[in-house]
Amino acid sequence: MTDHAKTPVLTMTGISKSFPGVRALDGVNFDLREGEVHAIVGENGAGKSTLIKILSGAHRPDSGEITLRGRPVMNLTPHSAQELGIATIYQERNLVPLMSAGENILLNHEPRNRWGLVDTRRLYREAQEILAGLDVDMDAHVIVSTLGAARQQAVELAKALFLKAKILIMDEPTAAFDQAEIQNLFAMARRLRAQGASIVYISHHLEEVFQIADRVTVLRDGLRIGTFDISDVTENSLVSLMVGREIAKVCVDIASVKEEEVLRLENLSADGLLHDINLTVRKGEILGVAGMVGSGRTELARLLFGAMRPSAGRILFKGQEVVGQTPSRSIRSGIGLVPEERKIDGLVLGMDVGKNITLASLRRFRTAFLLDLGKEKKSALEYMRRLAIRSPSAAQQVQYLSGGNQQKVVMAKWLLADADLLIVDEPTKGVDVAAKAEIHQLMRDLCERGKAILMISSDLPEIITMSHRIAVMRMGRIVTVLSCEGVTQETVLAHAIGGEGNGN
């Protein structure tokens, strides 16, 4: 970390904003110094998104003042924010998928020749120079839709660099990244900072905050709880400030694991994706699956749920060989999947909370040719209560819930379906620390009830604290299976990057 000038380049004073029935921000103060990374943390609903949308011009504050380099900024809009050198990179990337990286970087600022046509040679030359300035090895001609999440994020950063942004807002930038990609992003952010940019960094991952931030501001229920130098706080103290109480870190109880196997995989393969997978999952066990993005973790989950077909090997579920598996057969047999992309694969966003919860269990509410709607609603309300799903009612559309509550709706669906094996892919992706603790406790409770869980996660602390055993994948293979006792993040990462071993 470097020493930063005490005079802020940006000051937000007394910022308040209300929406119907919700006071999102209440007199919040925030400042950003030149060449610093200032993190904003808080639970979902704390006001982080509202604050950065005001700064980016997407929302107007009800009251308060914004000054940029000592000058008041009035009626900020997305266009005027960009002209003032403020760029925002959201979790959902703002790129044109069918255009090239270079075309996206210079979008709406394409160089023209003397006939008024786009000078493509100059466009790609300038885009390539910008990518090189970020130390990104990428051909500016590549089509954006063919790039992974991390490479698309690099294009977003290059676009901000081209626009000469001096204030860069990064909202959950590493949601789909593995550890190597996170470090590459941090390296790019540090280059931008060295060039004089100031960065506002929003993340649920506190370990990232401690790696990249110089200062951190904590929001809770629309209020600023405090701003601290990163050296003056710990992860535990930040969590306590964010939620207003302490959250204990509890590891899973090894006593919950039984001898009875729920799942056995024997030499399971899928052409070009998975190779000779051998694994077992027992009753009451959480088997963690770790590995870099592209290692085959998600493909394994899809195959087990029946969304993909194996090319060789055997799947035994509760002692019976599974043949011709499909998602509907998986549901009937007692296998549930909490997918990585809950909004795309796990929920029907236009449907209400109650209907999403009962979606996998409609058979039990059927009477002759009709559904017992009263019984269905009663069951949905019961699981909303049990999982503390925060929603005005079961009739609320699920798209309007926070990320943590949406994830609990997906979990409730499989609890109601009474799945014996629950496959959870990135169970706490994009949720706040309080919801994360609730989801972890829910998984522990399922183990106590004898359920088996196969948990895929890029969050190494989560993998280590929540797993009884850890299967590490690399290039579509299981390279080792580790006991949870004494394992470290470094050990897991070393195997994921280049370790050798045999699954068991």
Q: How would you describe this protein?
A:
Helix 13 crosses helix 14. The chain is α/β, with parallel strands linked by helices. Helices cover 33% and strands 25% of the residues. The strands form 5 sheets. The chain has a 6-stranded mixed β-sheet, with helices on both faces. It is globular, with a radius of gyration of 24 Å.
Features:
504 residues, alpha/beta, 6-stranded mixed β-sheet, 17 helices, disordered C terminus
Q: Which structural category do the helix and sheet elements fall into? A: alpha/beta
Total beta strands: 22
Question: Distance between termini?
Answer: 44 Å
Largest sheet: 6 strands, mixed
The helical percent reads: 25-40%
User: Whole-number average pLDDT?
Assistant: 87
User: How large a portion of the residues is in β-strands, by DSSP E?
Assistant: 25-35%
**Please, what is the oligomeric state?**
single chain
Tally of helical segments: 17
Poorly predicted parts: 499-504
Shape: globular
Rg over alpha carbons: 24 Å
Give the neighbour order of strands across the main sheet. Answer: 6-7-8-3-9-10
